[in-house]
Protein: Dynein axonemal assembly factor 1 homolog
Amino acid sequence: MSYSPLRAPNDPEESGLSDAGKEPLPCDLSLVREFGGKAFAYRSVRKLEGLAHLREIETLKLSFNMIRKIENLDTLTRLTTLELYDNQIKKIEGLEALVNLEVLELSCNQIRKIEGLESLLNLEHLKLQINQITEIQNLDHLNNLTFLDLRENKLTVNHNELAEWSSMVNLSANKELKYLNVAGNPIVKRAPYEYKYRLMAIVPSLRNVLADDDTSVCEYYKID
Structure:
């Protein structure tokens, strides 16, 4: 079965559904076609394999699938955007060859730790919302990182002392970081009114911070 980027992912034929109400048929990624430097497949991908013929693509979108492991991407060295939103991934790994990657989307998975990003020196956007991450770490080498989304994770702090916000202090090395979203984390709910000012002190480069107020309504704070 092949996937055409000209058709919507909710098309029964393109999604891999044999008919309504049945399990999606497994997708053979070796049959996925490239279009304008992009390739994507939805709903029926279970394993990352058979991608060697897509070595020239710059964007790969495999969101809303059943992928459990990031693997077999070594030939996709031209990738600048990788989207694996809403899969079943538990660990960030297998990205060593993607040295040109600028955007990494791993939201809505089962990731517990930020790791495996050592080779991604060109990364600018990192999206990890709705996972199970408890600590901000292993990002200090990402000198080009400008956008970080960690909302709805499990980031925590000990109490109200700035020095104890060790997880956030780790972001001070990211001198280009301008947009940060940690709404919906325990770290925000612990000190909703002081949160913005603490982050301004820890990460001076920030321009936009998304946080929760006491009514649980998200609001963007503009930092001038």
In short: The CA atoms of residues 27 and 158 lie 46 Å apart. DSSP finds four helices and nine strands in the chain. The radius of gyration is 19 Å. The helical segments are 12-15, 166-169, 186-190, 195-202.
